[in-house]
Amino acid sequence: MLLGFKTELKFNNKQRTAFLKHCGVARHAWNWGLSLTKQILDHNKANPTDKIKFPSAFDLHKWLVALVKPECSWYYECSNSPPQQALTALRIAWDRFFKKVSGVPQFKKKGQHDSFTLYGVIKILGNNKIRVPRIGVLQTYECLPQIQPKSVTINRQADRWFISFKLEVAQQISTSDSIVGVDLGIKNLATLSTGEVIQGAKSYKKYQAKLSRLQWLNRRKVKGSSNWKKVVIKIARLHRKIANIRKDTLHKLTTLLAKNHGTVVIENLNVSGMLANRRLAKAVSDMGFYEFRRQLTYKCKLYGSQLVVVDRWYPSSKTCSQCRTKKDVLLLSEREFKCDNCGFTIDRDLNAAINLTKAVS
């Protein structure tokens, strides 16, 4: 199976300028293609009898070369890969919108989510050097896998730049036959059916006051000034730190579950519905439920274990794990489950985790 490898780059000012130029070309191609495709959709909506065929990624790039590049000579200072990949990604985004998987693609802004993709002759030189088209040899902080990637993606996080590519890894075969149920929560990140409780990182809650202070300082600066740029970098660094702490906790938990158990059972949570609740949205986002499921999905595949997703309407919290009697009403404030039939008392989250294991056994 394919896995992504990502590491930080060492770079000088010349390379940093090249990174920014390539990001600018990719962003310009995306915004130009998005503007053009929106005009085509508006025309087709206004003229149902005289519709224009919606362009493919190849059509968009052909029009870009014919119409945009002659007027924007700075396109030729960069590789031709970033605009091609940006238009391909735009076409995929429109396909997702037409299938009602995601929303309408949005225009990109300078300095936000800067990234570009390069493909062609890419060579890894030694342990920590990689040669990419147009930019040249780049140095990394850690050892690189000795493969020959077909393409690489370079992106910026605050004031740091990272390179990523795909590599082929062999799937492992799990020898464990144990089943573990995982109940996700806001107070604790996860309660396992084994009785183990995993605390969430709650990194946003920890740094919320500091982030609020920096954002207040940012509002007091003149936009575009040197001091404004310094505070923007500080805010971006803090956001990166919050995200990294959350990802570290999730990676450790998902690896523990996928490696040590043959079957992992979770609930199909309605995360978007939880985020719509203004009282829960911040806490749910801080836990990272969607990222937990994403990581667990590919790690179970990697380590040979099985991931079972139980329907969200399965009454795991309302059912007694001892006698299987279901309660009609269970308030969110009741943190301890008490069975009216057999008198069994147990922690609410642990009861739900045990019921998840019984849902597949």
Give short descriptive properties of this protein.
7-stranded antiparallel sheet; single chain; 361 residues; alpha+beta; 5-stranded mixed sheet
Give a summary of the structure in a few sentences.
With 361 residues, the protein is of the alpha+beta class. The chain has helices at residues 13-46, 57-68, 81-98, 203-219, 226-260, 271-275, 281-287, 289-303, 348-358, and strands at residues 2-10, 115-119, 123-125, 129-132, 136-140, 151-157, 160-168, 179-184, 190-192, 197-198, 263-267, 306-310, 336-338, 345-347.
Can you walk through the features of this model?
- The chain is an alpha+beta fold.
- 43% of the residues lie in helices and 19% in strands.
- It has 9 helices and 14 strands.
- The strands form 3 sheets. The chain has a 7-stranded antiparallel beta sheet. It has a 5-stranded mixed beta sheet with strand order 10-9-8-11-12.
- A hairpin with a 3-residue loop joins strand 4 and strand 5.
- The longest helix is centred in the C-terminal third of the chain and has 35 residues, at 226-260.
- It starts with a strand and ends with a helix.
- The mean pLDDT is 94.
